[in-house]
Write the structure tokens for this entry.
Amino acid sequence: MRVTGGCLYGAIRFEGDSEPRFQVACYCTDCRRTSGAGHAAMMGFAVGAIRITPGAREFTSKADSGNDIVRAFCPTCGSGIYSLTAGMPNLIFLRASALDDTSLYTPQLAVWAARAPAWDVVPSHLPAFVEAPIGN
């Protein structure tokens, strides 16, 4: 699959030719806050499969799982680009909202579903996990 995307400003771009390992909707507190929505839509790829323009700003915090997580964004426009987590060090998570072709994203599971707000209901067809079944 050809994957391209970037920030609103256009300064940070990414590209790669790879299939995602999985596609997830995360309802954890941090993903909700950093996405500005009820959940973050992400695609997990092998580290090294995606090339990213230098210049993204990174912010490190503790995830709900207790793992360190790095969230990268454009320092000019604030668009979220990717995340890295110590719980899954071989993966990079691209924000589906940053894809040029958002139809490439099809969620396969929902994590931290117990934290979904009433106004952003977890789709009933998705396998949903109260917390995260992986990376803890």
